[in-house]
Amino acid sequence: MTSRVSGTLFALAAFVAWGFLPAYWKQMASYPPFEILCHRVVWSCVFLCLIISWQRRWQEVAKIVRSPLDMARLTASSLLIGGNWLIYIIAVNSGHVVETSLGYYMTPMLNIALGVLLLKERFSRLQTLAVLFALIGVVYSLIGYGDVPKYALSLALLFAFYGYVRKKTIVAPIPGLLVETLILLIPAFAYLVFLQFYGARPFLPSAAVSFWLVGAGIVTSLPLLWFAAAAAKLQLSTIGIFQYLAPSIAFLLGVFLYLEPFDLHSFVTFALIWTGVAVYCLDAVRKNYKVR
Which of 26, 152, 254, 256 is the most buried (most CB within 10 A)? Predict the structure, then answer.
């Protein structure tokens, strides 16, 4: 198997897994979202510790911990990704799967905007056009609904800023993710212990719910490992096109499986965002062709 083929398979595995993630959180729809988040942090930390031990990379983790600058940046990124995880769980379990897909369609355009505003990067004409379509889609949503798609914008903004902070933090993905979860571990574990002794909910409730809670660590960390493997084998522009698999699957789940409302205003908003996505992908393909 060539490096390109294996990288493609890893990318497919990662983004398809992320696309079906709403179906996983739906299994715990009756469970409080913040408690799901705390379990997600705890069990992700356990799973990542096993991976780091298997790969014998604790020296990389120790090097990160000894760097005040890396720790400061990873503390910021951990709060951003923790907020993203919490809002995603709340949105999915309150019947807004389609809106979450909109947020992840918008994320690349926000990344472009942050690159220009904060990193002084330069737009290409097609990138400018993609961002404009996304902006028009959000404005139309505001006019059509009389409301801002708050879940979509929150997810997109948090993940875009998370990407910006991680870009400024020169650490390997897996050790960096472990440090982020370790930062979140203390408050998450403390809250679960508090509920065990002073609340009405045990640390692990029934066997059925416990299965899903413990598995949250695997479904959080495993796609990230696949993504890291894909990133090492494929060009960034290629991965940029694959990333639209996840919101596309989530969109189909929301409309056809969970029967969420999708009216004319939703269609126009998505059509504008999808046009921006198509322009973004065209720019990525064009750059990839030039590199070749």
Answer: 152
Amino acid at 120: K
Contacts with 228 (C-beta within 8 Å, 6 or more apart), sequence order: 173, 174
Helices (H), ranges, 20-149: 21-26, 33-55, 58-65, 68-93, 97-119, 125-145
Over residues 180-221, the pLDDT tens digits come to 999 999 999 999 999 888 877 777 777 778 889 999 999 988
Q: How far is CA 168 from CA 74, 155, 178, 291, in A?
A: 10, 20, 17, 25
CA proximity to 76, closest of 155, 175, 185, 184 = 184
pLDDT tens for 123-144 read: 778 878 887 888 888 788 767 6
Backbone angles phi, psi at 169, to 5 degrees: -105, 110
Would you give the distance in Å from CA 11 to the centre of its chain?
Answer: 14
Nearest to 221, CA basis, from 14, 31, 23, 11? 14
Question: What does residue 43 show for φ and ψ, rounded to 5 degrees?
Answer: -75, -25
Side-chain-side CA neighbours of 189 within 13 Å: the count stands at 11
What are 26-65's pLDDT values in tens digits? Answer: 999 888 999 999 999 999 999 999 999 999 999 999 999 9
